[in-house]
Fold this protein.
Amino acid sequence: MTAVEDPAVPDTPVDLAPAKEIGQARLRKEDARLITGETQWTDNIVLPGMLHMAMLRSPVAHGRITHLDVSAAKDRPNVVAVFTGADLAEEQGSLPCAWPVTPDMVNPGHPSIAVDQVNHVGEAVAIVVARTRTAAADALEAIDVDYEPLPVVLDMEEAVKDGSPLVHDSTSSNTSYHFVFDAGEAGTGGDTDQAFADAEVTVSRRFVQQRLIPAFMEPRSVVVQPTRDNYTMWSATQIPHILRVMAASVTGIPEHKLRVIAPDVGGGFGGKLQVNPEEILALLVARRLGKPIKWTETRGESLMTAHHGRDQVQFVDIAADRDGTVRGLRVRLLASMGAYLRLITPGVPALGAFMFPGIYKFPAYRFECDGVFTNMVPTDAYRGAGRPEATFAIERIMDELAVELGMDPLELRRKNWINADEFPFTTVAGLEYDSGDYAQATSQALELLGYDELRAEQQRRRESNDPVQLGIGFSTFTEMCGLAPSRVLGSLSFGAGGWESASIRMLPTGKVEVVTGSTPHGQGHETAWSQIVADQLGVPFEDVEVLHGDTAISSRGLDTYGSRSLVVGGTAVVKAAEKVVQKARAIAAHLLEASEDDLEFTDGKFSVKGTPGASIGIQEVALAVFAAHDYPEGIEPSIDSEATFDPENFSFPHGTHICAMEIDTETGFAKIRKYACVDDVGTIVNPLIVEGQVHGGLAQGIAQAMFEEAIYDAEGNLTTGSFVDYLIPSAADLPHFDTGNTVHEATSNPLGAKGVGEAGCIASTPAVVNAAIDAVRHLGVSELRMPLTPERVWRAIHEGGDGGDRAAATSNAQGVTSSEAATASATEGDQQ
Amino acid sequence: MTQINVRVDGESYTDDVEPRTLLVHYLREQLGKVGTVVGCDTSNCGACTVHLDGQAVKSCTVLAVQADGSQVTTIEGVAEEGIGGALHPVQRAFHEMHGLQCGFCTPGMIMASIDLLKENPDPSETEVREGIEGNLCRCTGYQNIVKAVQHAAAEMRGQAPGDPDASPAAVDTAAAEHVVAQS
């Protein structure tokens, strides 16, 4: 670990104060305003003279703009201005992509507004600015635009073939990059081809990670206030700090003239980890007009144009000995980029590259990925970002290998997983897993589920040929979290570091302001950070206020994603508190007329060892340095501090998730009978928040398995463009979750925290699908495509195959899913 | 423009509105009642739920003119003694059971839950899940929302939460144990 160089306060190892607040289920400070409607969402902001912006969006997926006439719109009532791409072409620059995963990655650039060509449905082609939201929306109808259609590229496997139409004329193929990780070449494993040549058993599978939509509940919204050459931007974003740097570089507005504020933000899940076209356009329009500008999307716009997630075709081969010992893993991916590269679009599958080996001791591993352009909205981070895809692939194929070997799927896992006494363990992907106990989590999860009874019931249902069959599926997962060691990110060509910053301000009355560079949007940082500081400084929980999400208040930060906030940002808070204590110690020693070495600090009080009654509280020291009448020579009259923490390793939460699934073989209806999971997220600061994060992650992971799929028709229209068609689960669609924890502290940060935001989402999807297949495998089903709609499951049982595409049933057009053509795939998975 | 008279959270308003104006937009944009939010445009998410003459409605499916002569209660008026006053038991239960994370769905979820408990003061877990299925939450996985509604139900029936006579599911709550341990 490292900290900002501060000559007055050397970077010393941190001793955590005894946990009094840490570990408590403190009710959240954030709730007071959220349950009373006193929240500040971006869309609530009203400024004097504020104008509203609406976009005309392309109804075609691929076409040249041959005619665009906005004159009639300009004449509409209350319209102030209309802009086209041509109007803004000189100043709009290109939206940033921060992750060139290979040196020769092709990035065709990403205009915020189309100038002469559109590349996906929903791309902005004109902007109306009006005095009211409705006037702006109305005037869109008066814009006249014609497109010359171009061939639409949707199917990745077709897109990468020679002769395929191109998404971008400026490129020579639809492949943006070819990323390879080969353990043999990296020196972290043996020769993969040799491992497969020598193996007694190999199993190959093709898995489809359908396209998903993050679907945060608060639609994106941005307000920009220009004040001469200063700009303040409020945005419903996860990343105000990154957004500021990026927006400044895109627009040419100097960074110090741009303040970005993320007020209350209603969910993100990676979907608000983005520099959005509309944020840039709001800045450009505000600069042009010198007036405050607001844009808030409709849900339809959100589903159609905010970035999507997943969308990979995975070809996975596993090699093993007859006794079940795994020998090698080979992964080839086609990963959909969509039409453009957004902030970390190409990096998502590359991040996943390191997680395919999971918790297993593979001696050989090779990963290859093609990033592929299609005429769809770009993909980017969605809860887990690369790691759910990898976890799905490994946990699914372990089940298929078990079937091939005639082994119990759990026995196969036990045989190959890293044992508790083998940590730290360097995996074939080169990661050093620091701690954990997979066996312990598994035995607890089995107990929580009531495994033996359910297996017995499954047997009874099989024997009686019950129309409702039962299956049990496992996912013994790990993930790399706590993004991230800056040097590692550098080695992966990521455009930023992975540190986090915190500062602590001791107010004259002894109250404490904690400024964090993490940017919460539902995670409860205000509560958890208060608990940490209350312990470290020995002050009451209520005396701590946590400030965040405003670049003018928190100037340094790298924001919230990748389960990093507590692991990296929380540790920065610990280190900042440590510095406060160190600085206060010198003042306290002076005031107590004692040597610093004779002081001990407990429960917020400095006491002179062996002198009862000689003590001063840290909150009193805060007042003393405010008055500054009496402090030692040669030091500053302040006990405020700042710290930056750069982790030396990722953190590796793990857990065992078990799903028991009922499938009605007559209707294909799948229903989760019971879901039990035991997660190890290291030190738990607030069990209530941890439980909530696990629940929410489970809901989203289960939703991938069972409900959600972004579907495009053959013309590239999103047919799941509303909450009528894109099925995010309701309370009635989800089961009760039985959750538990084991605790093996992370060794890479003093808190011992591993991160919890993504765990449930990463772990649950394969457990659900494995359970469904287990329920009907005896009926000839060995693959099921996600989501597990009743139609798909029924088809797989009664017609064979994996259930096929859903699109044809929901669209009048000849539908294709985002990932592939409607045919061909249905049986491939079973022919191995 | 059409003139309407409505009583919102105890205050009377007379306003001119466009006939097409939705109640939620009237509340947010003309009255500044921004506690009620818009989450979708198809009446699926329920984030905009308010009470119209005592009944839960999605205020994006009601025209402002349809509220003429009516009483509207929003999340801002649901606390027993108005803003700053004692919280409604359902508001309190959402806090105590950790029934919210980002909080965007919360106003609508609370308004729908109050309406549910009026119809069914002692709902089972399944009845709560079905009762709030018109309201979407993307953060919580619903489990703690269900707990919150049952917890509030017990309190509103005059039973201490955790009372064995309360509905069985209401006491099956890890969150409640935390709360008990803390208080």
Summary: Residues 163-183 of chain B have pLDDT under 50 and may be disordered.
